[in-house]
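Practice problem: predict the structure.
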Amino acid sequence: MSDIQWNEIASGLQFPEGPIWMADGSIVLVEIKRGTLSRVTADGAIDVVAELGGGPNGAAIGPDGRCYVCNNGGFEWHENGGRVFPGNQPPDYVSGSIQAVDLESGGCEILYLECGGNALKGPNDLVFDVTGGFWFTDHGKNRERERDRGGLYYARPDGSEIREMVYPLDAPNGVGLSPEGDRVYVAETHTGRVFYWKLSAPGVIDPHPRSPNGGYFLCGLSGLQLLDSLAVDAEGHVCVATIANGGVTRISPDGTEIAHFATDDPLTTNVCFGGEGLRTAFVTLSSTGRLVSGEWPVAGLELSF
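Answer:
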């Protein structure tokens, strides 16, 4: 285990996730329980950018400057010991979707509700490649006696194309690209495992010849460690938010070196990089509704947009 001094930027957020560092020093993120895309300024003020409804989850800036959001359709919510926890699919659930939000006006466009005739159930996280296409995971939804199977998808930001790339996966959550753009990483929540798929071109998988889903196994964490969203740093390490064992776990590109940076929230859900030289990690502590920051050991990977 390694140590980072975490500094609180904001509190009172309603299950924050999907942080994006902006050039003005603010952080755009989602508040899943509140159903909003929000902005946190450097002094900790919280402003609503757009009312999205459902369960806005992962978020990323696209090539047109809009903020693209994976909307999981919402959760039932529970409180325990002053902490907030997401639960099963809520009674008012309609569907999952991919949304695009104008950050100036707050206007929202729904881009995708289904793929190949199959409804999106619980889109979770997304990442853009250099061509402007984006990879996203569908985590699925939980119900009292059943759970959806999830998958990995690739889509264009103009709403013209969506493709199912890997199916099924077990609760896929975080997704990220290697610095060279030749791997797409996915973290499975319940298995505590990270997989990757080799890419021969943007949006094109070169499958493992003996793998059931074409992927390669990177790493599995021991004990009760569930995985949430991830980011990649400039050295190619996969930095995955770790639930139960709250913190951010840094995994080397060959899966052999693992370092855990603990937080005080068991529902540590997302990390992004920003600040001078992209050396600051911004982390969402969701059950306690906080956004914190700390100095990362190396620079983060610069995103495509």
